[in-house]
Amino acid sequence: MMDVGLKAWAEIVQQVYPDLPILRDRSLWQAGQFERPSVFVETDLVSDKAHTPRADRIIEDVGMVFHFDMERSEIEDQGEPVPLDLAPFFLYLRQRRFCVASQRFGIMMVIEAPRTRELKDRTEVTLRYSYLLHVPKLLVNGEGIPVEKINEFHTAYEGEEHEA
Question: With contact defined as beta carbons under 8 Å apart, do 36 and 20 qualify?
Fold first, then answer.
């Protein structure tokens, strides 16, 4: 369940760039065994704290590497990278005021300002974000015995016990 952030970012990239392949396997990415153009997405846990008894606040960093297409139609430009336009991605984040809801995973990500680094054949985008992750209610105690729900309440008033 801890890769919810990674999957949510893959969902966002898929919404903005529906035809762009998404890489999540670090070993394939480092080996260069992927098609271009594509994007590599990786998340790193920064903090995991209890926010309420039923939710944890997760803070993560995400790194996305947008690899450019290397094929050009003109012969003189062969081998030159074709830059990927990231304006739709940043426009998508700005339109949602850097609060993006994942439809599939039911989380709302609060995103800090992104940092970009442009290289010859790719653009790297890094940002920090946080979201609340639901903690399921335990139905068994530490010994594996099911916990019963309390349905009867008794109160004491003027020395007498009353059922509420």
Answer: no
